[in-house]
Amino acid sequence: MATDTVRGARKFGRYSLLVAVAAIVLFPIYAVLLQALKSGADAFDHPRSLLPVDLTFDTIRSAWTAGNLGKLLMNSLFVSTVVTIGVIVTSLLAGYAFAFLNFPLKKIVFAIYLSTMLVPGEVTVVINQRTADSFGWLNTYQGLIVPSLASTFGVFLVRQVFLQIPKELREAAALDGVGHLRFLYEVAAPLSRPTLGALGLFTFLGTWNAYLWPSQVVNDNAHRTIQLGLERLKTPNDISKFNLVTGGLVVAALPIFIMLVVFQRQLVRGLTAGAVKG
Amino acid sequence: MILLGPSGCGKSTLLRMVAGLEDPSVGDVFIGEQRVNDELPKLRDIAMVFQSYALYPHKTVRANIEFPLKVRGVPKAERAEQALHAAEILGLAEYMKRKPGQLSGGQRQRVALARAIVRKPAVFLMDEPLSNLDAKLRGDTRTELVDLHRRLDSTFIYVTHDQVEAMTMGSRVAVMNAGRLEQVGTPQEVYDRPASAFVAQFIGTPPMNVLPVGLLGTNDVQVGIRPEHLLLASEGRLSGNVYQVEHLGHEVLVHAESTAGRLVARVDPASDLPVVGDAVRFDAADHHLHRFDAHSGMRVS
Description:
The complex is a heterodimer. In chain A, 74% of the residues lie in helices and 0% in strands. Chain A is an all-alpha fold. The longest helix of chain A has 35 residues, at 2-36. Chain B has eight helices and 16 strands. Chain B has helices at residues 11-19, 61-71, 76-89, 105-117, 135-152, 163-169, 187-192, 197-202; strands at 2-4, 30-31, 34-35, 46-49, 123-127, 155-160, 173-177, 180-185, 209-211, 221-225, 231-232, 238-247, 252-258, 261-267, 279-283, 290-293. The interface between A and B is medium-sized, with 15 and 22 residues.
């Protein structure tokens, strides 16, 4: 009985800790959501009130119209989808080459390739912006999309899973006359589905949330992404629209939230794929 | 044809060269009358069964067996029919919808075989296909393979380090050591007339006794005697002390330490058996002696 009590207490302690951590993580989200559901005047009068009283969708609605968020959402959706597909394709191809093919200087090329991960994006943003400009890609979709189509991390991740595929599978396929592309499509990629799912999800989230690069290549309404649009919802001088930006935040975060709920299992499986693969 | 040899002797490499997975640095590979050195693996008309089976884990048994046909563009209906036929030969028909992960080792092994036979290749290459099975299953599958070989009537090249497999399955055995071919012959030939001291000691359980130079009236060669030919004889030319007696039921193995090294004799359990510590004498009939060159180890006839 005594051990039961100890175990119970330990369990209680553990869960209390989890609840506390969850509360800390969720609090800002709750605060933003609550702020977005207040009218502008209410938000100005009671900025710190955390009680859900007098809730209204007005702020979100006016953020939607004021920021032209529908169009921006479509832009973000388009850019994120194309980038995600592109990253998966390029990571598959390059990861396959690094895992299954033999070519001169393979290890060195891979090392150089990996070392690019050490260079922060901020360092290259200016020169990349100039390059995009020289291509005439400012205010275009290709300016938003093309520079993100290949991901070092993606290539690395795919190579690592591919290295776990037994060499005999490739050899057995080669004896049957299966070429590299077909092997990639029929065997290697399907076997790596959890990892590819996670890579796709991360890429989508990363692109959806990207701010720095889009802000450098786009400043017109036709191509602006949702994150850039939020910036324009800031109205520090208009008391009646004090909380407009929080309404925009909710709109911007909602699709991501839905995706996370839907693909939660994929995400966790992909992250633990290397650890528990049997 | 069985390629037999200890680990690392090059038998798998040889098989892989036949398959085209590795390039020989010298020499030619012929399949039938055709030199295939420069042919891609897929054009060599071979099928290979890997030690690890190399089944596609995400495909069903049916899809695994059909895959070689699918790659070759065989129409769907024909493909299904041939896959079913191959599966039936190996007793897999009821498992067609399962994935490899849901099968036992023996069943996976049979799927790998079915995937090979569905192609109807000129040559089957098998790389230790039984080594991942437990002893009982290995025996059964060995019999099945022999039967399959007889029914399909095509060439099998079979790599193993297990001399029992080699002796029971092969029409011909090629014994390899350290990258070199020691002898090619029928199992009986290889057993009765080993071409070298290595072959003599590699084949047979327990292995042949090989005595140092200068014994049994020979002065320039090593002499080999199979344990079953080494007889207990009170007037024998070899003497030793028994240090172990193994009763195997149908036979008894007497191990003795002698001036010529350790000796093993296979003895009839019904005979008068020595016990550990006894001083015994052995002899063998001259026509049962194998003579090997003192330096090269090659047979001297």
